[in-house]
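Input structure tokens:
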């Protein structure tokens, strides 16, 4: 595994801040929104993380992490359009939640992959993308995401805003 670059450290530190603010926002408000300071913070930090990910090429070129960064940027844009423009009327809140919460999944997949491929230093937990430990973590995040987005949809339906 290549050494962390300065951009890699910046990306990682900002990413930790994004994930922490995102967890807090979802825990406290149930959905991510620009109406709350912590929602704005999460979305701003996520924008920086996705943008900086596009500049990291220490794995041999454009890869899955870059695709996830592009998907993150699309989900952010879609979420903002839904939240501010109400493109689909009363259904916009559901698409907003889908977009913003999807960015959380897009954070977690490369984060756990990088973590397990780097640590412990000198003898990482996994040495390939196909390692069962890594695949199981990624599937677990997908399952948590699916349960979470369904719970958000029910919460939004119940609370109407």
């Amino acid at each position: 595994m290549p050494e962390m670059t300065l951009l890699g450290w910046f990306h990682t530190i900002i990413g930790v801040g994004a994930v922490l603010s995102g967890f807090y926002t979802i825990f406290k408000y149930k959905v991510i929104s620009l109406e709350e300071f912590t929602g704005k913070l999460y979305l701003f930090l996520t924008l920086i993380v996705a943008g900086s990910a596009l500049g990291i090429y220490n794995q041999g070129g454009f890869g899955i992490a870059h695709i996830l960064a592009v998907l993150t940027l699309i989900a952010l844009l879609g979420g903002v359009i839904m939240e501010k423009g109400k493109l689909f009327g009363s259904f916009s809140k559901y698409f907003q939640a889908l977009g913003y919460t999807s960015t959380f999944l897009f954070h977690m997949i490369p984060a756990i992959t990088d973590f397990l491929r780097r640590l412990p230093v000198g003898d990482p937990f996994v040495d390939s993308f196909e390692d069962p430990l890594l695949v199981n973590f990624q599937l677990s995040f997908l399952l948590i995401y699916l349960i979470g987005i369904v719970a958000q949809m029910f919460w939004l339906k119940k609370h109407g805003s």
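Helices lie at 6-29, 37-53, 64-85, 92-118, 132-159. The CA atoms of residues 2 and 60 lie 10 Å apart.
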